[in-house]
Amino acid sequence: MNRKNRKIFILHEIYGVNDFIQEQAVAFIDEHTEVECVHLYSDEKCFSYAQEKEAYLYFTNEIGFDTPVEKLVKQLRVAIQQYDKVIVIGFSVGATIAWQLSTLPLHRVVCVYGSRIRQYLDLQPSCPTLIVLPSLEKSFNVQDMKNALNHIHFVQTIQFAGEHGFMYCHNVTFHRESAIQAHMSIKNFL
């Protein structure tokens, strides 16, 4: 029997563990890799893309960043004892949480359009960390954040055409070519 020596934790965006997040999980499973979609919402709530405002308010008012980080630190410390390689991949708010977890002794961290990473630029990852950025964000200058990240040890940034959410095929911001390129870049990084 082959022992699975790699565990990947997928952290969702404000919408919850939806079809997109489940598709991401399937894309990374192989004979040596176990993948787990982490529910940041204790009630496993899931929102549609049309419910963006409701999902955002739920995350900011009911969840926030601190509680999931505390929970995941414990979960990841257990996984680090059980697997040779532990990887965290986060999308949007999940990417910001993944960034906060990058100080743990993980194998790799991938943060896909974690716009709030800009609030935690004082963190120093302890493992190779890939930051996937869109070319445009409505709320801040992506280039400024990219420039700041490029000076942090272990951090690699890569930018693709499109807006926040460009990898979600069910979202209006979907950018097919960038989504394919980003997915290939993530797989190569891992």
TrEMBL record:
Q: What Pfam family is a match, any one? A: DLH
Residue ranges constituting the Dienelactone hydrolase domain according to the UniProt record: 5-188
- What domain of life does the UniProt record list for this protein's source? Bacteria
Instruction: Locate the transmembrane regions by residue number.
Output: none
Name the Gene3D superfamilies on file.
alpha/beta hydrolase (3.40.50.1820)
One MF annotation (Gene Ontology) recorded for this entry: hydrolase activity
Q: Could you tell me what this protein is called? A: Dienelactone hydrolase domain-containing protein
Q: Give the organism, scientific name.
A: Lysinibacillus sphaericus OT4b.31
